[in-house]
Structure formats: structure tokens, C-alpha cells
């Protein structure tokens, strides 16, 4: 049965170095959670603790409120950073072995494998040795290995790294099937564009500490100033002189600018009165100078937000 996975106050040091600092976040049922951070930020360490490969110094990981046991973890699916399949074995043999290890019947395993390799686009390669496949296809096989026993939770360390855009879409469709049946999915990535496009929830980690966690759209709203785009007929340079306006990008008649609204106001909602008044004031000023062809709020990309929270 799918549940909520909760990491609560996890700490872990290696030697004198604190790799995780009071790490707390949830991975909710049926949601795809992107775990983003630079190299060495602590993503792999946190994932290993979830899977019990590594122990935390303090803090807890719970599944539906219960402390994790070996039995819970047996029903999780994990794609480790170091990958885990044998190069010399065929994909089908390895997946069969893993499925049987997890207690599935031979018939169920065979059915699952056929479905998975087909959907992952490696159906025709399933009887080849792993090492004979391209790196992208090897990665698809690793993902199949995490899924073959119909896990209740999926934890994937960099599942999209090294995949071409078509493979990203293929893998994504398979992960979406999992969330559709209620499975919580946690995946780590450096590829912010991928995370931005794909995830429902987002956890940003920097130097072992959680910098932001929550719904993607809410994070966008909470971590950014009200940002607007305007297109006029003439040059939009006059915007630079407007009170409360910070021009982010100016290219002749087109400009992107932030409005100086308090962060607390902004977190409370974009429609707050102060921001509403200011954006209309800028629009009126623009109209007084000539035709306005476009005016409206723009959502900054996650990459921009990430730069902001990682400062
Ligand atoms: N077994 C270990 N022994 C010593 N230090 C470790 C060990 N595992 C991780 N670390 C250190 O802990 C910190 C976090 O590493 P971790 O691998 O969790 O980061 P990451 O976010 O997964 O980065 P990457 O994307 O590069 O794998 C790093 O400074 C790393 O060097």
C-alpha cells in the first residue's frame, strides 16, 4: 500500500564533515518529487539512508508514520548511483532474478518484464547482455530493475542523466504510470530543466541543508518577486527610472522587470494589493507613453529560483 515517506531531522557526518544537516521533507503518494542540488549537496546520502544502505547519525525516516523496517524496504524500488546490474548477464535474466528475489511468481515476473521492457523501449534488446547495450539503454534497464517487483515507493538516483530527450520522455511516461497508481517517486537530478518540466514537488538541497521544499508552483511563487513582461512600440528604457521597478532584461521594446514587493506579501499571494497597485501603475505609465502590445506576469524558471535559494 502506498504511503507518505517522511524524512525528519536527518543528520549524517563523514569524518568531520556534515553531509546532511537536519534534513526534513516528505515524498507524497502519487507525486513525482524532484531532488535537486549541486554535486556533493547530499542527495545520494539522503537516498541511501532512505534505503537503509547507510545509517543516519540522528533523525528518522518513516513510511505512513511507521519507522522503516527491512520488510518495508523490500517493497521499495531503488536505482542507486553506482547502478547495480551485471554487465555479462542478459537483461531478462537479471530482471527475472530480481523479481523472484522479491517473491514474485515466475508468471508475474515474466509478465512484468515484458510490459516494462516494451514501455521502456528496450523490448528487442531484452535477451542481450547488458554490456552490449548503449549507455542510454543500459540506464533504461536499470530503471526496469527498480520497477520489476511493483514497488510501493521509488527512489531513483539521477535516472535522467545521460539520456537523450526522447529517452527522458519514455522514462518519464513510465514514472507517471507509477504515480498514477499512487506510488511516491523521488528522483535526484542536476538537470533543472528536466525537473522543472517534470516534477510535481521539489526539494532543493545545498551543502547538506534543505533550502526549499514543496509544490513546484508554490515554490515558484514564494521564492520570487513579482516578475512582469512588457512589450511596447518604442524603447522601454524609461522603465529603469520607475520607482520600485528593477529591470531584469531589456531589449528595445521588450522588457522583463521585477516589482519591489515584500517577500511576506508575495508569499501570501500574488494578488496582494500592493503588487496589484504597482503593476497597474507601471501599465498606466506605459500607456501614457504609447501603445502597449503585451503586459503580464511571468513565472521565472526553476533554474533562476535555484540560483536565488542556493546563494
Ligand atoms: N562514504 C563517504 N565517505 C566520505 N564522504 C562521503 C561519503 N559519501 C558521501 N560523502 C560526502 O558527503 C557529501 C554529500 O555527498 P552526496 O554523494 O550525498 O552528494 P550528492 O548530492 O549525491 O552529489 P552527487 O550528485 O555528486 O552524487 C559530499 O561532500 C561527499 O564527499
UniProtKB/TrEMBL annotation:
InterPro entries: AAA+_ATPase (IPR003593), ABC_transporter-like_ATP-bd (IPR003439), ABC_transporter-like_CS (IPR017871), ABC_transporter_ATP-binding (IPR050763), DrrA1/2-like_C (IPR025302), P-loop_NTPase (IPR027417). It is a peripheral membrane protein. Keywords: Antibiotic resistance, ATP-binding, Nucleotide-binding, Transport. The keyword DNA-binding does not apply. Coiled coil: none annotated. GO terms for molecular function: ATP binding. It is found in: Cell membrane. Residues 5-232 form the ABC transporter domain. It comes from the Bacteria. Belongs to the ABC transporter superfamily. This is ABC transporter ATP-binding protein. It comes from Phytohabitans aurantiacus.
